[in-house]
Fold this protein.
Amino acid sequence: MKDAPTIGVFDSGFGGLTVLRALTERMPLARFVFVGDTARLPYGSKSRRTVARYAAESAQFLVREQGAQFLVIACNTASALALDAIQDAVPVPVLGVIEPGAQAARRASATGDVLVMATDATVQSHAYAAACGAQGLRAMEKACPLLVPLVEEGWTEHAVTEEVVRVYLGELLAEAEAREMDADTLVLGCTHYPLLRPVIERVLEGLPRSPNARDRGHPRLMRVIDSAQSTAEAAARLFDGAAAGPDAGGSAQTEIRCFATDSVEKFERLGSRFLGRPVGKVELLDLGG
Ligand code: DGL
């Protein structure tokens, strides 16, 4: 068996911890270094150029200073806007979350019509429409810019969040219906959104059925997927089982080192909830302005 690798993972904030969690479950023997660029969040409202610069800085820190041999961009926005820029910035393999997300959508959808909730920047890039199109799927994307701040606030179970989700989903389903889509799968196209999955599923359950909706397009039958699991599977495949370990399913012993560019106390407090185990001591990292 090959030596267990050091894997660098980054996102603008807590969202990437949903991917990190899936990675540690798949590859418990790897060593993980995580960066949450909380000082410069949200990425989802910024330009391609700015996101590419921020993402390249995190990538270079992980590779040059932390010895990462492989990077997982646990951020849809950076994956959509800056995958090439990140690949150019570091001499190690880089895996984004959009491709695995589209592959998971293809496995989940019977009708070939999928809905995508994502940040403004991801939606404007149409990265999901392109990746889903390459899988033979038709995708309708919806920007949901209020959701990342609500998650960063820890409001994952809150009446305000539920109302916001209801408005976004109601609009998305209405737009899909207006285009006569027969959507049966909802992709959470931002790594923050799996933290809202219970709220999203509850809202889908309660949304009224439109008289014109076909059976499969009923919100209650919508499959909700995110790219965390399929990204972790793709990463594990690349390492050919090198870090799989005997206890697949996760290990509290997996070595994780976390950095945040701001609010380390908040990251320690809320991060453990999102990672499903204590994040430990979070170190403050200065990546510049
Ligand atoms: N979690 C990130 C994503 O997957 C970005 C959130 C943000 O900073 O806007 O898109």
Observations:
- The longest strand covers residues 6-11.
- The chain has two domains: 6-96+229-284, 98-227.
- The radius of gyration is 18 Å.
- Residues 88 and 150 are 33 Å apart (CA to CA).
